[in-house]
Automatic annotation (TrEMBL):
UniProt cross-references to Gene3D superfamilies, sorted A to Z: Glycogen Phosphorylase B
Protein source organism: Paenibacillus glycinis
Domain annotation Glycosyl transferase family: ranges: 145-258
PANTHER family linked: SULFOQUINOVOSYL TRANSFERASE SQD2, TRANSFERASE
Protein name: Glycosyltransferase
Highest taxon above the source species: Bacteria
A Pfam family per the record: Glycos_transf_1
């Protein structure tokens, strides 16, 4: 199968630190290539992959990026997997799925895909499909012996509930390490900075070996999001490391932890109690097995290949004539031929 993967122009593939969407694109691309498929990746400059060919965007303008994709996309591609949105909105004459890695897809596209059934129901209105994110298990350090600190890993914004993680640490009397990108300085200065000290530390953005070590050594990871979390990749990364991750029933969290109900919490007090009685939580090897059985890059790729074939074989994609894609392509061809608009 010849497959085009369309990434965003925000972070290269694969990302060095934070970048959930780009990591998904990377894992999927590499696993597809490993299985013998031809993959054409469109991504931000600085991206690297084993794709048949990697095209790096030459402009920051979405319209120019679309033109770049139109000019470089091979004519005999079987399906386009759009993680960005600009291609699906243009309605190319090629079967195209549009994946939302967040809450929803604002524009109406033919085949929307969401990262959880919760998001498909609430924001997708049950129109489309749900395919879970996956990670490469070998990219995460597995460890059964843990250190006595709690870990918060994610963007430092109100919706991620860092202040609640601090509450849990104080109620349980445990050390807390906070790691992630500082996206809201006002929130950080008001709700996080006053609590920093010997027992609560902020270590900045982490990636690579540092991130793996923090996840593998933590006693528990606190996933304290207060919004409708679409999926929650940190949940899976923690379990892959053999580390219990405690989360609130928000968004797709309960769905991701469906097989691990003891990890779900209703309040910070309840979460703190589970931290204190950690021995009652699932063991490291059980957590790792659970993550592998549901959220590996292999499972994710299996799911997408099944969807690709369904879209192509059942002709779920309706080819339209007067679309933005066709108009832009005609204009580009006219310009190349030296014709007037």
């Amino acid at each position: 199968m010849r497959i085009a993967q369309i990434s965003t122009n925000t972070i290269p593939v694969p990302p060095k630190d934070y970048g959930g969407t780009q990591r998904d694109v990377h894992y999927l691309t590499e696993e597809l290539v490993k299985r013998g498929h031809e993959v054409f990746l469109f991504a931000k400059k600085g991206s690297t992959s084993n794709a048949t060919r990697t095209f790096e965007y030459e402009s920051d303008d979405p319209q120019e990026q679309l033109d770049f994709i139109i000019k470089n996309l091979p004519d005999d591609v079987d399906i386009i997997h759009d993680h960005y949105g600009i291609v699906a909105k243009a309605n190319p004459p090629i079967p195209t799925i549009c994946q939302s890695h967040s809450k929803g897809i604002k524009s109406r596209v033919q085949i929307p895909v969401y990262v959880s059934k919760f998001i498909l129901r609430k924001y997708g209105k049950r129109r489309g499909y749900a395919v879970y994110n996956g990670i490469r298990m070998d990219d995460y350090t597995f460890r059964t012996a843990k250190q006595k600190y709690l870990l918060f890993l994610g963007r430092l914004i109100k919706e991620k509930g860092v202040h609640l993680a601090i509450k849990v640490a104080k109620k349980s009397g445990r050390r807390l390490i906070i790691a992630g990108t500082l996206n809201d300085k006002r929130y950080f200065n008001a709700k996080i900075k006053p609590h920093l000290g010997k027992k609560i530390r902020y270590v900045g953005t982490v990636g690579g070996d540092r991130k793996r070590e923090l996840l593998a050594n933590a006693s528990c990871v606190l996933f304290t999001s207060t919004w409708d979390e679409p999926f929650g990749l940190v949940l899976v990364e923690s379990m892959a490391s053999g580390t219990p991750v405690l989360g609130f029933r928000k968004g797709g969290v309960a769905e991701v932890l469906r097989g691990m109900p003891s990890l779900l919490c209703k309040t910070t007090s309840g979460m703190a109690a589970k931290v204190k009685y950690r021995k009652r939580l699932p063991a490291a090897r059980r957590l790792r097995r659970y993550a592998r059985s549901r959220y590996s890059d292999i499972i994710m790729t299996d799911s997408f290949l099944k969807l690709y074939r369904k879209v192509i074989n059942k002709k779920l994609y309706k080819i339209k004539k007067n679309t933005l894609w066709n108009r832009r392509k005609a204009k580009l061809q006219a310009a190349a031929n030296g014709d007037d608009d």
